[in-house]
Amino acid sequence: MTRSLIRAPRFMIADHPLPWLLPLIVILVVFALYPFFYNIFLSFHEFAPRKRELVPVGFDNWVQLFGDPRMWNAFSVTLLYTGICLVIQVVLGMAIALLIDSDDPGFGFLRGVLTLTLVIPPAITGMMFLLMQDAQFGIITWTLQSLGLLTQATPILATPSLALWGVIVADVWQWTPFMVLIFVAGLRSLPRDPFESAMIDGASSWQVFRRLTLPMMGKVIAIAVLIRGIDLFRMFDYVFVMTSGGPGTSTYTLSLYAWEQTFSFIKWGYGATLSLFALFVILIAANLFVAVFKVRW
């Protein structure tokens, strides 16, 4: 006597993609889609503290956004910060990657050491550089004063023209190794034959870099710039810890402004509008970048 086998539904079989994709779909819905659509809902409402409820305001938050001079100042500071950091980190990252792209003993360990800065929380890095740039006992301040590049009357993080550079130093220190590791991986993937032919033909190191390395590394550089650019545009930790947006509004970024409106002034709707505006800017800029540089993932 044979027993009839009960067959499980097709979507529950191991070779079906649904059991493997379901956890990812749930995470995506809970942590991405729901917050996104709730932010859109919030942008058309505002929290009324007296009523302790959300009140519909229509497009008032969006009208306020485009007419807010503090928002445009924060936006310009964010663009300036992103541009300066990207240029410095790409140039430094490529230079260091070329120096450590070697199989000689010790270079593997050196590449491993570079990852140490990446595991430090940005808030801790900001606190470290806040102490190192302290006007009284900071090692960076003392060094610059010893070299005659800084006076006691111009503390780094309290001077409008220097404060943003003080924050940039912390970001460059922590995230340049990220660019280095990406560039080293790209250099390792390049074919050896063109470089050997160039050396036989007597090409200089600069010619090899300009005519071979740089063009062949174009896609890798573009992907690194895209990833870091998105991350830099939403930077919050360093500014919050080191300057709180000051002095004045010289380091006031868009993310900090959105946080302040949401949690300090309890303007949930306007804070959601600011965050959506930042998201739309990132999406537009990233898609234009991908289209112009023909980036393929």
Which properties best describe this structure?
single chain; about 300 residues; mainly alpha; MetI-like fold; two-stranded antiparallel ribbon; 2 strands; globular
Short description:
The protein is mainly alpha-helical and 297 residues long. It has 13 helices and two strands; from the N terminus they run H-E-E-H-H-H-H-H-H-H-H-H-H-H-H.
As laid out across the biggest beta sheet, the strand order is 1-2
Radius of gyration using CA atoms only: 25 Å
Q: Kindly give the count of domains.
A: 1
Decide which structural class fits the backbone.
mainly alpha
CATH homology superfamily: MetI-like
Annotated CATH architecture = Orthogonal Bundle
Supply the number of helical segments: 13
* Beta-strand percent range: under 5%
| Helix proportion range | 55-70%
* Helix and strand pattern: HEEHHHHHHHHHHHH
Number of strands: 2
Q: Would you mind describing this structure in some detail?
A:
The protein is mostly helical and 297 residues long. It has one domain: Orthogonal Bundle (MetI-like fold). It contains 13 helices and two strands, in the order H-E-E-H-H-H-H-H-H-H-H-H-H-H-H. The protein has helices spanning 18-43, 60-66, 69-100, 107-113, 122-132, 139-146, 160-188, 193-200, 205-216, 218-233, 237-242, 254-264, 268-293, and strands at residues 45-48, 53-56. The longest helix has 32 residues, at 69-100. The chain is globular and about 80 Å long. 25% of the residues are buried.
